[in-house]
Each structure stands twice: as C-alpha cells, then as structure tokens.
From TrEMBL:
Organism of origin: Rudaeicoccus suwonensis
Segments forming domain Knr4/Smi1-like: 37-160
Domain of life according to the entry: Bacteria
InterPro entries named in the record: Knr4/Smi1-like_dom (IPR018958), Knr4/Smi1-like_sf (IPR037883)
Lineage: Bacteria, Bacillati, Actinomycetota, Actinomycetes, Micrococcales
Protein's recorded name: Knr4/Smi1-like domain-containing protein
Cross-referenced SUPFAM superfamilies: SMI1/KNR4-like
C-alpha cells in the first residue's frame, strides 16, 4: 500500500469546503475545520477500548486530524473521542441498529464486523468501516437505509467525499 499524503488531502478538502462556504449564500451547510491531530497515546486508548487496532489508513488520518465535524453536509467524521464512545458515536450506534438485517445480508455483511466512523446529525447517512474480523477489512460502506456506495479503503472514501463536496460547490455555482 502506498503512503497517503494526509496533509495534502486535508488541505485540499479544506480549500473545497472554503469554496463551498463562499458559494453557499443561504448557509445550508456549516464550514468547520478538522480537529487537531490525535496523539499516539490517545489512539492506543481507542484501540484498547475497541479491542483491536484501527485500520492503518484511518489511524494515520487521525494522527493528522482527530475527526472532522460536518465533513460532508451534516455528516461528522469520527475522531478519537467518538471512537471511545462519546459524541457522534452514540448516534452512529443508533443508526447502525436501524440498518435492517436484510440490507446487511444484501451487502454480504455481519453487523458485528461494522465500526461506525461517520454519521449524519439529522439524516439517514451512516458510514461504517469493516473491522479486521471481516472478510474485507478497511472497506468503508455508506448506508442510508440500504447500501449507497462502497469504498475499498479509507483514503478512497476520503477522496470520494472530497469529490462530493466539490459537486456541492458546482451545484451552488449553477443555481
């Protein structure tokens, strides 16, 4: 796996979100910066709490940005505090409980293999990462009732969300 330049990817998304803030004249979405990086010690506590190590790409991201409120529209990307059971994790766990067994079966997933990593504050959007116990660890899946999209790893998910934010900019420019 090639190294991901998280500093560059984070700055790209900050610039896209800044452009979105400028064209969103009705202020439909909040513009928030990512949180300050998590420490190694904090991530070790997260991993002890979860009972397994974090996906390497997600872990590396957290060492650069400890989560990102309003990462995409009203979706908050979890940081260490959330992964320790606080904040958005409660909503993530609730939303995961609403994903029907038939939707999981259609996606070939087991609920116990899913770690919520992002959730909408007011919508059905839930993003989960498959844990090491799954057949495809590190995969990120977007649910909104049923599966919306699937990303092979965290960096591809991050890049896709950057593109979705760019689409929002284009939408506002065309309106």
């Amino acid at each position: 796996m090639s190294a991901v330049n998280w500093k560059q990817l984070i700055v790209q998304l900050v610039l896209v979100k800044q452009a979105l803030s400028e064209v969103d004249t009705k202020k439909l979405w909040y513009f928030r910066l990512p949180r300050i990086a998590a420490s190694e010690e904090t991530l070790r506590r997260v991993e002890a709490h979860l009972g397994e190590s974090l996906d390497p790409q997600y872990r590396e991201f957290l060492l650069h940005a400890d989560g990102w409120p309003t990462f995409y529209q009203v979706v908050d990307l979890f940081g260490s505090g959330d992964l320790l059971g606080g904040g958005a994790a409660l909503r993530g766990a609730e939303m995961l409980s609403y994903v029907e067994d038939v939707a999981l079966a259609a996606s070939g997933l087991r609920r116990e293999d899913l770690l919520p990593i992002a959730v909408s504050a007011s919508d059905l959007d839930l993003f989960v990462m498959l844990t090491k116990s799954s057949t495809i660890p590190g995969t990120v899946i977007w649910f909104a009732g049923s599966e919306v999209d699937r990303f092979p790893n965290f960096s591809e998910y991050f890049l896709a969300m950057t593109d979705y934010n760019r689409e929002e900019v284009n939408y506002f420019l065309q309106s």
